[in-house]
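re: that chain from earlier
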Amino acid sequence: MANPKAVILVSGGLDSTTALAIARSEGYDCYTISFDYGQRHRAELHAAELTARAGGAIEHKVVKLDLQSIGGSALTDDSIAVPETEGEGIPVTYVPARNTIFLSIALGWAEVLGANDIFIGVNAVDYSGYPDCRPEYVAAYEAMANLATKSGVEGQKLHIRAPLMRWSKGEIIRQGQSLGVDYALTVSCYQANEAGEACGRCDSCRLRRAGFEEAGVPDPTRYRAG
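^ sequence. v structure.
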């Protein structure tokens, strides 16, 4: 009997790489997708390709989008600085509608592949205030997906899987370690350089470093000098 298929959104970061490892450990044939959407650096796309290959993806797809054209985020508009201190409310690194756009394209590919499961590495514990990383959002998107697709209408229920939703960063890292994830391949920094070296100061870097400390695992992140 053939393994079930799953589409996994991968960014090259710690969380999505762990979500891929979980999907594979559950017996899925994994098809990974990442997005060249006009983000500040391309290092994460290289990391996504490396982690997809290391994670046993059958196929890795990169979809090009232009979210720079609408801006509104420090990750897509160079005139908005990436903050290096923790702020209140939804941070300027939030990309308007990003997960909705990404999931919609992943959903289309899942229909083409005949996959009923889409994995995304969103997290409501260390989620930095992003509204599209909450369990309510994932549940609402899954309901919409089953209303809006041929698969859903014909009874092939689609599932949006967010296995990391309620884990701390340390718990995520410990789970990944148990599944053999090589976190040295991942890039989490919002402003990594072209070599993939992290700034060590942005919110994502702070969460990542704290996660390795919580997990009691050596941090393999390559930081920029100075």
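The chain is about 35% helix and 10% strand.
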